[in-house]
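pasting input
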Amino acid sequence: MLNKKNKTYYVCVFFFCLFVLFLYGPTFTIVLLSFQGPDGGLTFPLNGVSTYWFEELWRGGSVVDIGSAFKRSIILGVIVMVLTVLLSVSAGLAFRKKFWGSDTLFFATVASLIVPSIVLSLGVALQFRLLDDFTKWLGSTFDINYINEFFQTTLGMFTSGLGAQLTWTLPFGLLIMFAVFNRFDKSYEEAARDLGASPWKTFKEVVFPLIAPSIIGIALFGFTLSYDELARSSQVMGAGNTLPLELKGLTTTVTTPVIYALGTVTTFVSFSVIGISIACYIWLKRKKG
Amino acid sequence: MKFLKLKPSVGLLSIPYSLIFIFFFFIPLILTFIISFWDYNEYSIIPDFIFENYSYIFKDCLNFEKDMCVTFKTYLSTFIFCFITWFFTLIIGFFVAYFLAFYVNSITWQIVLFLLCTIPFWTSNVIRMISWIPLLGRNGLVNDFLLSTGLVDAPQEWLLYSGFSIVLAFVHLYTLFMIVPIFNSMMRIDKSIIEAAYDNGANGLQILWNVIIPLCKPGIVIGSIFVITVVMGDFITIGIMGGQQIPSIGKIIYVEMSYLQLPAAAANAVILLALTLLIIWIMTKMIDIRKEL
């Protein structure tokens, strides 16, 4: 059989190890380089070992206001995560039966993953620009003081930015729900119903505990994809940039290891979130068992 | 009072999700299409119905005596990136999935190794791109190695900010899009089919070619769609890894937007979207996506 430990097996193991090295190697090098001494440059060899570049990053020396971009990204990530979980779980429940428009919605879900992000970003930006024009028109036509004096734009991180990111995270959430319900044993649910539980109680006491580990997965996708999202966000964030957008700008301007220090910090945040999620997943699975 | 007794349909739970897609997916795309026929000046966009935005894109494209027009050149370069990236992600993705599905016996190890492949997907793409700089740069590790072994006399400039580094970054970032659907297809293959082929005297290569690959076709198609569309619309990877020197359609749209030439950007977006959909349409002719989840 295939799983016999023959020559092909070792070739495959070797190939897989190379692939993992290819995946993680480069990130590892920038983590290494971010701990250089003050004389360090963008490439090897390492010039001493220190946390100088992290301090530099903390001071905000050569870099734009990274601290607030970081904070904004985390806040947006958490909001996207919560909405992704709520909306995709409820839509997932709806999709267990056919409903009016379910095929169109499924099409939109898949299409949203495939539409070039820059096209969607442009579309949302256009929409909010028209919304702005319309609001200003309302203000001047009906002489609404508040609009005329204070209104600037509807474009912003928690309006257009949030929406654009949801079109990227929700499809992952719904597809995970599909995968969950395709393998879901309905007999537990039917038993609960037969014993007289209401639909809400059935969900709370039976379905939810069974799908809880997968919801952790959806939350993980929601947060990390938002936290690192760049292409869809590029035109719709309004005044305040998120961290990836600032980072992209820095790639052309910063020539010191401070950018590696920033890379190390964001990668650390991502890895922590992934680690916590995996721990929660395992804990929930154990509890259930 | 009768309507109060109607049982609320579970389908209603999809409403919040649908609203997001109506407001942030359907309407924006429709508006993009409409505005691609509008006029504009330096400050504003003007409702109109003109074809200038489109004719400008294909200006000089049908004049075969001159060089190829910018638009065709850009698309050609994008198609080449698509093809090379598709080729490498498919080969690498297939064999990684093959290893995970058929050579790793315990479920736990399968999950652990699969996660190992997935984790980078949840980290920052920009960081993963710039992490090639210390390796491929003029004074990078690769050049150091090549120089010290005497394979080359001078640092190689084509390693970074070139077509090579762009493809490398694409493969680095998006091989996962191949691994996941192909692995999914492979896990559905009934092991007894392979057993039967083996018992009938097929060797490893024959099993791979005649049994496994045909059964993985849906996974291969889904993975290919993802990889090709993501490369088609890219402007960030090509921008950063190409040192802002290599054109892409996404970049054209991005630049036009920054000059507030929104209807021109919209026209480019419509063409890009139409081409992308055409490619997907051809590919989905081969499979039913919904069955594969």
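fyi The longest helix of chain B spans residues 70-103.
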